[in-house]
Amino acid sequence: MDLGTDKMLAKVEGGIARLTFNNPEKRNAVSMEMWQAAEKAVTAFAADPSVRVLVLDGAGGKAFVSGADISKFESERQGEEAVAAYQAQTKRVYDAIASFPKPTIAQIEGFCIGGGTALAVCCDMRICEEGSNFGVPAAKLGLGYPIEGIRRLVDIVGISFAKEVFYTARRFTAAEAASMGLVNRVVPKAELAAYVADYAATIAGNAPLTIAAVKFIANEAVKDRGAADEATCDTMVKACFASADYVEGRKAFLEKRAPNFQGK
């Protein structure tokens, strides 16, 4: 996929889309150009029927994403209009990942700081290696932080831990991240890539209609009672039972073989 920059890489293989932040000399700090490329890739992946899972990762082995490229602040975030444009662009990427219709996994190696943490909490799952560390240094930079980003962190770790993350602006270890529920799994560094690949393949091999229904319904389930779109939830459940995949799943179980789901 041509993204107009070599700082972002995108590919699809075996039903698994992968978006790689490729700026290792700056620990994958993200520029405006990279945010724009990321939006293009995520939009294309969402529309691609062959994609069943999206994995986000960082190149170089030292960082997932270390935040915004501060060296670009003077050119990209100087002045009210520039700040507004930058925030609008990052919001589009965060929203696109948070609303992505298929499962998303953040594969976190090394630093996951600032915008990296914001990206990670937009994903359904976060899997990191033992040497990873996390943090949001907004309070050390004098940055304002939008409600959507804070809400996503609160939804995952709870309000007290979210306040701790923002108030202290310090770095948290992988073990601390696991203890607060920020990450789903912590694995040895040497095993991270294979572990995530296996997880993604497992998910990709399951029934797409069921996965899509679960993702939508889970997101509706955390809304206040009365605010959830229960009619759509019911429709999606019924579609699973009416699908050819439901027939295939039962047949494969009886025949003691792996099912071949088509998402139909």
Automatic annotation (TrEMBL):
<dbReference type="GO" id="GO:0004300">
    <property type="term" value="F:enoyl-CoA hydratase activity"/>
</dbReference>
<dbReference type="InterPro" id="IPR001753">
    <property type="entry name" value="Enoyl-CoA_hydra/iso"/>
</dbReference>
<comment type="similarity">
    <text>Belongs to the enoyl-CoA hydratase/isomerase family.</text>
</comment>
<keyword id="KW-0456">Lyase</keyword>
<dbReference type="InterPro" id="IPR018376">
    <property type="entry name" value="Enoyl-CoA_hyd/isom_CS"/>
</dbReference>
<dbReference type="InterPro" id="IPR029045">
    <property type="entry name" value="ClpP/crotonase-like_dom_sf"/>
</dbReference>
<dbReference type="InterPro" id="IPR014748">
    <property type="entry name" value="Enoyl-CoA_hydra_C"/>
</dbReference>
<dbReference type="GO" id="GO:0006635">
    <property type="term" value="P:fatty acid beta-oxidation"/>
</dbReference>
<protein>
    <submittedName>
        <fullName>Enoyl-CoA hydratase</fullName>
        <ecNumber>4.2.1.17</ecNumber>
    </submittedName>
</protein>
<dbReference type="Pfam" id="PF00378">
    <property type="entry name" value="ECH_1"/>
</dbReference>
